[in-house]
Write a structure and sequence with these properties.
The chain is of the alpha+beta class. The chain is about 25% helix and about 25% strand. The strands form two sheets. The chain has a five-stranded antiparallel sheet with strand order 4-5-6-8-7, covered by helices on one side. Strands 1-2-3 form a three-stranded antiparallel sheet. The structure holds adenosine monophosphate.
């Protein structure tokens, strides 16, 4: 009879492997390229972190699947959000960008900032000199979002670019995260 679950310390993640006769602690630097730092109550750690292990594999698999469609030019879910075909919780909007709450928040504040016109920016790795204006605009919009959400004193902006970074939607987007103490390094 064996059970395994993950918890975390400030700098590493610990694997507790409980057997009938022994408990083994294994320090892991990180879970994998797509792991998400634990953010919830310690009372929920065993259950939540076990599902995190399989979630990590799911995220990697879906990121790889999404990457195969990345350069087809096919519309993404974000096109439907921009056209308001599907609802979103909009935090900020101007003529160039839209900011809306992430459907799967990783922090009390988790807002996505996207260009309304993709213009080839499926991912940051595709950026070209002509994109300089919109890239700057997106960063400044992220700061406006942080102000609106009351987290301008401490927040993080993340861009996942490509499958290795677990990008899952191929329309450039900035994650604005805050509202709790953020840890470093990320997973
Ligand atoms: P990434 O993994 O960096 O490509 O981030 C894509 C993000 O889009 C994820 O954090 C998802 O939770 C988020 N997302 C996907 N669909 C929706 C949606 N319909 N509304 C809001 N956020 C979404």
């Amino acid at each position: 009879m064996a059970a395994a679950f993950f918890t975390s310390s400030s700098s590493s993640t610990l694997l507790f492997r409980r057997t009938a006769t022994a408990v083994t602690f294994v320090a892991l630097k990180q879970l994998g390229p797509c792991s998400i730092p634990p953010i919830h109550s310690p009372f929920h750690l065993p259950q939540r972190t076990m599902s995190r292990v399989s979630a990590t594999h799911d995220e990697e698999a879906s990121a790889r699947a999404a990457a195969t469609e990345a350069n087809t030019g096919a519309p993404t879910i974000f096109d439907k959000i921009i056209s308001k075909e599907i609802p979103s919780s909009i935090v900020y909007e101007d003529e160039k960008v839209l900011a809306f709450r992430d459907i799967n928040p990783q922090a009390p504040v988790h807002v996505l900032v996207i260009p309304k016109l993709r213009d080839g920016l499926t991912e940051l790795g595709k950026a070209e000199p002509r994109h300089e204006d919109i890239l700057g605009h997106l960063l400044h919009a992220s700061k406006i979002v942080a102000e609106k959400e009351g987290i301008v004193d401490g927040f993080r902006v993340v861009i996942n670019s490509g499958a290795t970074a677990c990008q899952s939607v191929y329309h450039l987007h900035l994650h604005v995260l805050g509202g709790r103490q953020l840890k470093w390094p990320p997973g």
